[in-house]
Amino acid sequence: MKITCEKNSLLKGINTVMKAVSSKTTMPILECILIDASADEIKFTANDMELGIETKVEGTILEKGIVALEARIFSDIIRKLPDNIVSISTENNLQTSIKCENTDLTIMGRDGEDFSYLPFIEREEGISISQFTLKDLIRQTIFSIAQNESNKMMTGELFEINNDTLRVVSLDGHRISIRKIELKKSFGEKKIIVPGKTLIEISKILTGGTEDMVDIYFTENHILFEFEQTIVVSRLIEGNYFRVDQMLSNDYNTKIKVNKKNLLDCIDRATLMVKEGDKKPIILNISENRMEVKITSQIGTMNEFIDIDLEGNDIKIGFNPKFLIDALRVIDEETVDIYFMNPKAPCFIRDEQESYIYLILPVNFLDAA
Amino acid sequence: MKITCEKNSLLKGINTVMKAVSSKTTMPILECILIDASADEIKFTANDMELGIETKVEGTILEKGIVALEARIFSDIIRKLPDNIVSISTENNLQTSIKCENTDLTIMGRDGEDFSYLPFIEREEGISISQFTLKDLIRQTIFSIAQNESNKMMTGELFEINNDTLRVVSLDGHRISIRKIELKKSFGEKKIIVPGKTLIEISKILTGGTEDMVDIYFTENHILFEFEQTIVVSRLIEGNYFRVDQMLSNDYNTKIKVNKKNLLDCIDRATLMVKEGDKKPIILNISENRMEVKITSQIGTMNEFIDIDLEGNDIKIGFNPKFLIDALRVIDEETVDIYFMNPKAPCFIRDEQESYIYLILPVNFLDAA
Q: Domain A126-239 in CATH: superfamily?
């Protein structure tokens, strides 16, 4: 195989597929990027068997062929080359020479035939949303997937399509995050669980443009994202997701409207009093159009007053401050509405249209304090 | 004690003294910042017993007093407050309340009397150089102090004043770095060894302005830097420094002139072939106005040609690439001159005026390869 490409084209291709390179594996081939120049175009592929990414790279094929190169060293070499044309050529013994200007670096490749190609996905009916929207959907829900694998389903997000709405849901047993958008075309019904890791990685390679579209296709076991010169294929998580609607409610006894930044900054300060691993709750004491935010720990105490618009009853309720912070951080609005029922029922942060809903379980602060 | 200050004044003060807060200590008082408002000005002090920093903070004293606050939490609290006036007040039981706008954070302080004040340094004859120059002197030599403490003297830098020149020297057994500047005023003779840690920390708080001066004073056991509202006092390392001049030589059989960036980029690429902890040398093969740079390791090989101006004999010589990189990185000139004697003698990278000299010992590449 012999190809020539601009350094920057190579780098873009490497950075795109790098997200699917396996970092801890006993199979060295999974730590590689496959360079496939066996047909008329140059394609880079990485595949950790859960997630696979393939992207086209601009360049010239001088001699057709394929080779797999260890991703880390290949990436480092290309990054450190001068900004110029790079030639990559592989001998029959897989020795691969990377040349640019006066420099020539040689590393051993691996047989491209050993590489696991991406599963073939039939692109039938799909949905199309902007990269910006997909990135936003992920950012605004991904924080509440479960971190440990003990419940596999909680490590993914529900993508639920119902005619012309797409609802994305994540939950970890203490909180639920929901984002809802309208689709341009009606689709039918579909419920799938996408691994959190897939969403985190794809989020990193989306440009985030509002005009750049992503097409999304589904099969029984896979989801495929297609955009620009790239396709991302991921396995799905099997099973029926939690019945989230049963946990939601629009009833409330207390509703407050509060400046988001003020509340976020306040709770952020409160966390200074919480040592890593400590589970001190933050106490919200709501009455008469102001909210007292309070925390007491071994380190010290914080006490702060925030102006609010109050509708309904006074309430005193405790929360894990991190959960409030996580939700407030991803909400783009200047003010937020928070709904409470009683000190033992979850609170809801949501907008009127329910384009977002964050449910957070309270902490029994009488026990905890 | 009760004081009020702008948040940003507090933050500036904290950031300045923070560099002398002890991070690993069994004495909790050393992890504190002392707030001293016992006289007519507010002073922050930190002191890890090797290095002490004291700085004046703008503000108003409402009630005189002193208190020591745990530096980490004090710094975090101030950083997260709104940009506004902050009031700090300490009760008799040392409970300290930090208030700003609607927030009130309370932490326990420690008795300021337990704090170790900085040693008193008589400011007699001193030298005065710009912050820019001091920062540069440190940056251009600090990388070649020894990292481990087995030879205490090697962990410091020699500051050698000889009438109107200041020479700063560091060495670690494999290389020597020397920077020389002229002083505006003649001083006499002085040789002291300043701990590397002191120089690293002071470098971080110098603004680096060419017009902002630092005054430097010496006593038997201490060095004192004074600039703006801040003084930094450090213990010196005892002993007679290595006799560096014996190791220097102006003889050479080969002299090359080379573009610094080209050489640096080339060696940087070569290090891709060196695994952490591996000691593969880089081989320079100089002949006929070009230099072949070569490295071979388990990972692969690199081979590159660089244009040079050659004066004298051909030579083939091996080096630890890191040592070449460290020196080249801190040289500001576009081209550098490198002098060689033979493959077993050190090379010298220096300018005509010898304002900098970097001596690097070669590696026996026949054994190593």
A: DNA Polymerase III, subunit A, domain 2 (3.10.150.10)
